[in-house]
Amino acid sequence: MILECFIKSLYKLRDTLPSESYVMVPLKICCLGLGSALCAFQWLQRNFRRKIPNESSPYLILREPTTEYRASNPKWLSEAAHNSRYDSSDTVSTNNNINEEEVSEVLSSALESMNQALTNTRLGSEACRDSFFCLDPAFTYLNHGSYGATFRVCMEAQSRLQRAMEGQPVKFMETSLVKGLNLASSAVARFVGASPSDLFPVTNATSAVNAVVSSVIHQYIEITQKQQQRDPPVKGLEAFGSRSNTLTPAYSIGGTLLHSITTLSRIVWRAAASALTYPWRAATCLLSVTRLDGMVRSTRGRGDTFVLMTNLTYPAVKSTIVKQASRAGLSVAVVQLGWRELTEPGLALEAVEKTVKELDGRILLAVLDHIISFPPIILPVTQMTAMCKKAGALVLIDGAHAVGQLPGLHVPSIGADFYTSNLHKWCCTPKGTAFLWCHKQHQSILDPPLTSHGFGLGPRAEFLWQGTADLTNWLAVPAALSTIQKLGFDAISEHNSRLVRWAAAMLVDCWRGPNQGVNNYVVGGQELGSRSPRSLRVIGGHAGRDVLLTACQYHDEAADETDEQARAGPPLLGGSGTDSSAACKASTGDSQADEVAGFMLAVQVPMLRDQPRPLSADYAVALHNVLRCNHKIEVPVAFYDGSLFVRISCQIYNTPQDYEHLASVIRAMMPT
C-alpha cells in the first residue's frame, strides 16, 4: 500500500513538472522501475502467499476463488458431463433408437401408440388436430406462434416419465434424468446441424439470452476493472466510465510496453490457471479473453461501448439488454427497421451496415432476431452476422421462432457466436424446452442462469443441472422430433407455408373495400395492380423479398377419385362447398414466391364500426379480447405503423375453415 501511494505521488509530481525539466528523464525511469516492481510484488502476493494465515486460524482465505476452489460435484454428473458417447453421430437419432432403460421404454411405448394416427391422418384436418394435439375444438386457434401446441405423444411420454420419477425419485434423478438430458440435447443438436458438445438445454430463449448477455458483459467488466487497476489515472479526467474518458495508459516512456506486458501476463496466467484446474478450457479461455481484451483497449470507455439490437427486438430481450447494459455503464444502440427497411430489398441490411460502420470497434455484442415476433419477418441473419463480426462484435441470434419453421436450418453455418431457439413453438415439444448453442471459442466465458452442481466441469454440466427440477419435459423432446420426422418436415413446411399464404389472400379478398378488383397481393405491403386508399397490407416472409399471393386453387384429395379438376378461385365467405379434409394449394407461378417463407403472416385489419381515431395499442388489446371471449378465436392483434394487424399462424392442425371463421367475424364488424 505504501509503495503504491509513493508511485502515485511520483506520477503526480511528473505531471506537474515541465516536459523540458532536467529531472524528467530520471523521474520517468524511476516511475517505470517502481511500477514494474509493484506489479511483480502484487502478482507474487496473490499467487504465493499462504491461504491460511496460521495453523490456529479458524478460516480459509481464497484470494483467487475461481482457480483455488474445488467443487464437490456428484460422480454421476461428472460422468454425464464427460461421456463422449453422446457426441457420436450414430448414438442418438430422432428415431429414439436408444438403450437408456426407462427413458427408452417410455418413448418407444408412446410412439407406438401414435403409429396408427401417422398412417391414417391427413395434414390440415380436424382428425389431425384431434389425433396429434389436445386443443379445444370449440376454439379457432390461429396463434401457434406464441406458445405452440404440444404433441399428444410428448404429453403421454412426459406423464409416464413423471410417474417413473416419483416411483424412485433418487434413482431417476441421478441416473435416468441426466442421461436422458444428454440424449435429448444430442438429438436436438443433430436436428439443427450442430455438435452436441456445443448445445445446451435451457428453459426458454429468454433465459438463454440472459445467460449470454450477462456472461459477455461480466467478462467485459472484469477486464476493464483489472485494466483500470493497472493504469494510473490520467490527469484531468473524470471518474472511469464517462463518455469523455479514455483507456490510454499514463506512462510517457515505456508505459505502453509495461501495460502490454502486464495485460498479457494476466491473460496468460488466467489461461494457465484454467488449464491446471480445467484442462479442456485452456485454449478457449485464452482466445476469448484475448479477443475481449483487445476490444476493451480499442474503446474509449464503458459509455462508448455498445450492445446492439433493433427496434423490433422481442420486448423481453430488450428489457434484458437494457438492464444488463445500464448496470455495467454500457450504451445500447438500436437499429431502426421501419416499413421500408422490411419490405424493400436490401434496406434492412443497409440499416445494420450503416450502424455498424458508425460504431466500428465499439460494439461489444449484437443481438439479432432470426424471425421477428411482429411483424413476422425473416431477417438475413447470415449477412448481418458477417457485418457485425467484421466490426469485432460478438453476435447472438435470437431464433425463438426459427427451429421447426425454417427448413434446412444449420445453426453453425450462420456464423454467429451464440444462437438460441425455443422448441415448444414450432417443434411442438412440452413447454419450457429450448436450447442455447455456443461456439467453442466462447464457452469458457459462458455462465448458466443458475450455478449449482456442475461448477468446474464445463458449461455442459453446468447447463445440464440447474438444481432440482422436473425436467421430464426435456426427456420427451425426442418424441416430438421423431413425430416431425415421420410426418415429413418437407410435407409440414409445404402445407403450412401454402395454407398461410392462401389464408392471407383470402382474408384480404374478403375484407377489401368496394371498387378493388385486384386479386393479387404481395407479402411486404406492395399490392400488384391499382392502388387504393383502402388497400390492405400483408407483411411477412423474408425481409425485402416479395412472396406473391395469387388466386388459389382449392384441392380436395377425396374428390380426386371422381373428379380430377379442382375447384378454382378463392373460397367465398362461409365456404363454397368445402370440407375439413381439404388442403390448400397456392399457385404463384414464381419460383421465388414458392419458396417456404415461414408459417406466419400479418394481415391488416380493415376499418371497423365504432373504431376510434386515431388507432392505438389499447384498441388492439380490446379487439383481441372481443375475438377471444365473444367469438372463440385466438389470434394476436397488434398496432403497427398506424394500423391494426392480425398475425395468423399455420400448423398442421389448422383447416381453411379456421381462417374463414376469422374472415366472417371481422367482416361482420365492418361498416355496411
From TrEMBL:
Residues 559-587 are annotated as: Disordered. Keywords: Pyridoxal phosphate. Pfam families: Aminotran_5. InterPro entries: Aminotrans_V_dom, PyrdxlP-dep_Trfase, PyrdxlP-dep_Trfase_major, PyrdxlP-dep_Trfase_small. The keyword Ligase does not apply. Residues 307-507 form the Aminotransferase class V domain. Signal peptide: none annotated. SUPFAM superfamilies: PLP-dependent transferases. The keyword Transmembrane helix does not apply. This is Aminotransferase class V domain-containing protein. It comes from Chlamydomonas eustigma. The lineage of its organism: Eukaryota, Viridiplantae, Chlorophyta, core chlorophytes, Chlorophyceae.
